[in-house]
Amino acid sequence: MLKIWNQKKSEVEAQRLKPKGSPSRIRLQKDLGELVPSADTDIQFPNPADQTTFTVVYRPPTGFYAGGEFRFTFEVSENFPHEPPKVLCTQTIYHPNIDTEGHVCLNVLREDWKPVLNIQSVIFGLQMLFLEPNPEDPLNKDAAKLMIDDRQRFGRMVAETMCGLSRNNVAYTNVLDMKNPANKGRTHRNAHYY
Amino acid sequence: MRPETDKSQLYDRQLRLWHESGQTALENAHVCVFGSSALASESLKNLVLPGIGRFTVIDDATVDDQDVLTNFFVRHDDAGKPRAECIVAGLGELNPDARGVAVVRAPADVLGSCEASDTDLVSSASLVMACGLPDALVHDLGLRCWQLGTPLIVASAAGFMASIRTTVPEHAVVESHAEMKQDLRLTAPFPALLSHVDNIDLGTLDPTDLGHVPFAVIIVKALQKWAAANGLVLGKDTIEIPYRRIGEVRDIIRAMAPASDEENFVEAGNNLNANCSAYEIAFEVSQIISDADASETPTSGSSSDDADLQVSPSTPLPCDNGSKDKFWLMAKALRRFTESEYSNGKLPLSGTIPDMKADTKGYIALQRVYKQKADEDKAEFSKHIHDVLDAAGLPQDYVSQAEIDTYCKNARRLRLLRFTPIHTELKSKPSNIDELAFSEALFHYVMFRSSAMFFEKHRRYPGVPDGDKNVDLDDLVAADAAELETVGNGLLVSWGIADQTVPNGLAAEFARSGHDELHNIASLSGGVIAQEAIKLITHQYVPANNMCIVDGAASKIHVARV
Amino acid sequence: MPSKVCHRGIQRFLQLKAPHVENFELVNDEGKTPQQLLNEAKVLVIGAGGLGCEILKNLAMSGFKDIHVIDMDTIDISNLNRQFLFRKADVGKPKAEVAAEFIRRRSPDVNITAHFKRIQEMSEEFYLGFTLIVCGLDSIEARRWINAFVCGLVETHGFEGFKPIVDGGTEGFKGNARLILPTHSACFECGLSMFSPKTTYPICTIANTPRLPEHCIEWASVLEWPRVFPDKKLDGDNPDHINWLVEQATQRAAPFNITGITYSLTQGVVKNIIPAIASTNAIIAAACTNEAFKIVTSSNPFLDNYLFYSGDEGIHSYTFPYEKDPNCLVCGNRQGAVTMSGDATLEELIDELKTNLAFQLKAPTLTVDSTNLYFQNPKELEELTRPNLEKKLSDLFSSESTLTVTDTTLPTSLQVTVTFS
């Protein structure tokens, strides 16, 4: 064994430090440290010492969902980046690509995940879902149909559900970002003006 | 809907590979093994565990202290007992469904006997294995099995080296599980597919529906345009798009797409390369069809009882038991099918399609088009098989519907393997010298042959001290290695491979082993042997044709044809 | 009881000149004979499943005398078609213990120790005690963990922490064996891209446009199960759970005219079952044990470093040196050292990492022993760790600590040891 060891001793001596933490943690540190700052996206850590669980909060600046504040939990397993993070929407929202249970239909979260992608790619994908919902591959079929058939009514429905109204026996979460001055005085009663 | 039977749970992980049909074949099989060393017991272990029906171990060896150290299935208190009985008992514990019998007789004795109970041991076997038998016995057993048409696996091990040789006149495989491109026939669409595609008008679809058209439909549309632009008609003319012109079809698809990133159109582009060549029957299958043709002319009564039958490897038997073998009966029907006006030179459609980005309705409709065509092909094929059965004087139920289904579904991946006999090889030289000469396995093969010749001459294997003579083992190994190398180089010359010599150290490595089996190498070889045996018994997957060399010293496994 | 004897065939290889080993020695640098090395080698077998049972048997029959086996699993009926040290009566018992007991009975001169534990539960001292490690695992996660851990042992303990890993894996008629010499050759993580992640289907396909029976099964397991049983974890080994999924998936499939949903397919999709047979395990396990034997005894050259075997269509096998990945998260981390006053601030250290020509980092993020020192992003972590910038290094960590530094300019990390002057 010593002979094998000695064959490359010099090479080993040049790099004798033990990487701290598992490969998944090193990769997560890299992903988080290099996130592109964005005024409309927050990342919150329930326990800052543990970076494997966090919440991404997104406030779309434009589009149907402007004025809302959308929350997603991220869980990063020890098998990251071989496996993608697990992402769920914690609110009940009306969205063509997110069902009322919080499942998100985003290709990079499932079939198109590759280890070269990172946390930023997932956040970017989530942001796109709110700026440009994709009704052609829907998860919430009714929402998608309405968006295609009648964009105005769809917009109204989004605005109403964002205020926490119940529609079709579903109690939606009030997702309004009250820190946003544009939302001042916005309630479900005048939702249709938005 | 219960987790079915106990058996389906027990065998769950293997049923996912060879399904019920393969399992039934295993459970109905009888494996007859000459020899009871670790090589034999390790091979059998991997057959008993998955549920082989019956196994017989023939050997008169008794357990010694060395066996206890190398053969996992004998125990310390077995010393002095018949080894065949010990390993049958040990193996029997692994799976109560596998019934083992020990025949405590010398292999030479059993092979030399004309008693029906002895000849039955081989003739009743689905597969025979010879583990560490001397060449003379391998010759006799090889001849016997070749005449019976029974697969034989001959294995021997020497230290870090092992050789595994399979021989059977021919081996047919319907369920080869061979990986092949999809059977979509987009360059030669059948009428129902064409009309299905024609009924879809991309121009009238809204963006959502357009984004859900299966890629096969998109490609057919594009091919229609391409054909028209080239003065051809898809479905009538042979369409074959050369590789360098596939880009033209790609451009047509791009122009049809509502957006450049529309997933189903992207998928169509990605699947173009696999779907632009003209319809073609795989070489292996067309060979089977033409062999079936040969078998149409009645052969004079099979002479398999003739002990002096000399089979020349260059003219293999066209088809063993041609009149009754289901594979060949169906091959005849397949030939008639492909020659019929109905099929226009094509095989029965497999009827399965890959997943495609599409909505459920569009996909299932397309799936149904393929399924219906496959069913029609099957019905047409059935007519031919019925004619063939009639002509052979066999009842219509001689071939079951399930067998017809499987045959049609797998028609494009049929395989027929012809092996070379081992008895002629041992008497003269390997049948495929030219091929072997370029194989990495050549020298290992030469060393195994040389070791056997050394044994014939000295009645001991290289490196093994003769009796109690007090010799220095290193000196003995060196001397024997030198002789072994000389024998090996002589063999090479006699086979006409004069430009190559046994590489440095290989003879020494063989002599070093004293031709002893190492448990580890026996176990590795036992895995290879069992895989091959399972493939031969189930007629699923494709066995190696015809020799495998395990080189544990170099951590390499070589395959070659001898 | 037999004394510590080896099979005659093995002894020959321990005593006779090896033609293929350069500078073969009958007594090595440490003054030990191959027989002594074999007797004294302490081998850890990780996994007592299909490969593990074979590896244990092979090690015992190859003359190894001190074997440990670790496995956290218990025996299931579907193991019995290949895990030959177990019988029907053993179903439900710990694999490691039953396997060890079997070997103990068969080969009383072999010392075998069972650990019914998770590999992550064992201490560094435990792993340091072995000569080498043989892995017969089917979980990528476990293999990544042990690889990173064992590669790390070299970094902290030098030669004492140098534990070659022999790793085997199978799928159906295919398999591979590889030899990992930590820090010398490609590690498991270097070849991670060869493993495709578990097949998944777009969730919108599952929800709205199912085409395959698998889509309906995933609908039942991914969407319906958590909706109907929000507090119950789906157990792929519980027949009641699988039956429920089969029913749901079948009802789901019917209106779409999708067919082919069976119990077996459902369980296969839910558990991501990989076909496994005794013969393939035998090939790969023996290939692994063969390497363990050769590396301990030097009786023949060892594998460099990857053996692939496939028996699907004929036999195909290749042996080749798998290359190290320079961007590997385990062995591709860069190393560095900085000497600074313990009174210097973290901000000064960061400046050093940016300006020192050996590093030239742009915006480094630093942790030490999984404690956050400074995060450039995201905002919350940056704000939380910003006060550390003012702090003295000696208040944050001790001298000679190794910091994990990530930066856009680095493919993985920089492991930098900070020594206080």
UniProtKB/TrEMBL annotation, chain A:
<dbReference type="GO" id="GO:0005524">
    <property type="term" value="F:ATP binding"/>
</dbReference>
<keyword id="KW-0808">Transferase</keyword>
<dbReference type="GO" id="GO:0061654">
    <property type="term" value="F:NEDD8 conjugating enzyme activity"/>
</dbReference>
<feature type="domain" description="UBC core">
    <location>
        <begin position="23"/>
        <end position="167"/>
    </location>
</feature>
<keyword id="KW-0833">Ubl conjugation pathway</keyword>
<feature type="active site" description="Glycyl thioester intermediate">
    <location>
        <position position="105"/>
    </location>
</feature>
<comment type="similarity">
    <text>Belongs to the ubiquitin-conjugating enzyme family.</text>
</comment>
<protein>
    <recommendedName>
        <fullName>NEDD8-conjugating enzyme UBC12</fullName>
        <ecNumber>2.3.2.34</ecNumber>
    </recommendedName>
</protein>
<dbReference type="InterPro" id="IPR000608">
    <property type="entry name" value="UBC"/>
</dbReference>
<comment type="pathway">
    <text>Protein modification; protein neddylation.</text>
</comment>
<dbReference type="InterPro" id="IPR023313">
    <property type="entry name" value="UBQ-conjugating_AS"/>
</dbReference>
<keyword id="KW-0547">Nucleotide-binding</keyword>
<dbReference type="Pfam" id="PF00179">
    <property type="entry name" value="UQ_con"/>
</dbReference>
<dbReference type="InterPro" id="IPR016135">
    <property type="entry name" value="UBQ-conjugating_enzyme/RWD"/>
</dbReference>
<keyword id="KW-0067">ATP-binding</keyword>
From TrEMBL, chain B:
<dbReference type="InterPro" id="IPR030667">
    <property type="entry name" value="APP-BP1"/>
</dbReference>
<feature type="domain" description="THIF-type NAD/FAD binding fold">
    <location>
        <begin position="11"/>
        <end position="558"/>
    </location>
</feature>
<protein>
    <recommendedName>
        <fullName>NEDD8-activating enzyme E1 regulatory subunit</fullName>
    </recommendedName>
</protein>
<dbReference type="InterPro" id="IPR045886">
    <property type="entry name" value="ThiF/MoeB/HesA"/>
</dbReference>
<comment type="pathway">
    <text>Protein modification; protein neddylation.</text>
</comment>
<dbReference type="GO" id="GO:0005737">
    <property type="term" value="C:cytoplasm"/>
</dbReference>
<feature type="region of interest" description="Disordered">
    <location>
        <begin position="293"/>
        <end position="318"/>
    </location>
</feature>
<dbReference type="GO" id="GO:0045116">
    <property type="term" value="P:protein neddylation"/>
</dbReference>
<keyword id="KW-0833">Ubl conjugation pathway</keyword>
<dbReference type="Pfam" id="PF00899">
    <property type="entry name" value="ThiF"/>
</dbReference>
<comment type="similarity">
    <text>Belongs to the ubiquitin-activating E1 family. ULA1 subfamily.</text>
</comment>
<dbReference type="InterPro" id="IPR000594">
    <property type="entry name" value="ThiF_NAD_FAD-bd"/>
</dbReference>
<comment type="function">
    <text>Regulatory subunit of the dimeric UBA3-ULA1 E1 enzyme.</text>
</comment>
<dbReference type="GO" id="GO:0019781">
    <property type="term" value="F:NEDD8 activating enzyme activity"/>
</dbReference>
<dbReference type="InterPro" id="IPR035985">
    <property type="entry name" value="Ubiquitin-activating_enz"/>
</dbReference>
TrEMBL record, chain C:
<keyword id="KW-0067">ATP-binding</keyword>
<dbReference type="Pfam" id="PF00899">
    <property type="entry name" value="ThiF"/>
</dbReference>
<keyword id="KW-0833">Ubl conjugation pathway</keyword>
<dbReference type="Pfam" id="PF08825">
    <property type="entry name" value="E2_bind"/>
</dbReference>
<dbReference type="InterPro" id="IPR045886">
    <property type="entry name" value="ThiF/MoeB/HesA"/>
</dbReference>
<dbReference type="InterPro" id="IPR023318">
    <property type="entry name" value="Ub_act_enz_dom_a_sf"/>
</dbReference>
<dbReference type="GO" id="GO:0005634">
    <property type="term" value="C:nucleus"/>
</dbReference>
<keyword id="KW-0436">Ligase</keyword>
<dbReference type="GO" id="GO:0019781">
    <property type="term" value="F:NEDD8 activating enzyme activity"/>
</dbReference>
<comment type="similarity">
    <text>Belongs to the ubiquitin-activating E1 family. UBA3 subfamily.</text>
</comment>
<dbReference type="InterPro" id="IPR000594">
    <property type="entry name" value="ThiF_NAD_FAD-bd"/>
</dbReference>
<dbReference type="InterPro" id="IPR035985">
    <property type="entry name" value="Ubiquitin-activating_enz"/>
</dbReference>
<protein>
    <recommendedName>
        <fullName>NEDD8-activating enzyme E1 catalytic subunit</fullName>
        <ecNumber>6.2.1.64</ecNumber>
    </recommendedName>
</protein>
<feature type="domain" description="E2 binding">
    <location>
        <begin position="338"/>
        <end position="421"/>
    </location>
</feature>
<comment type="pathway">
    <text>Protein modification; protein neddylation.</text>
</comment>
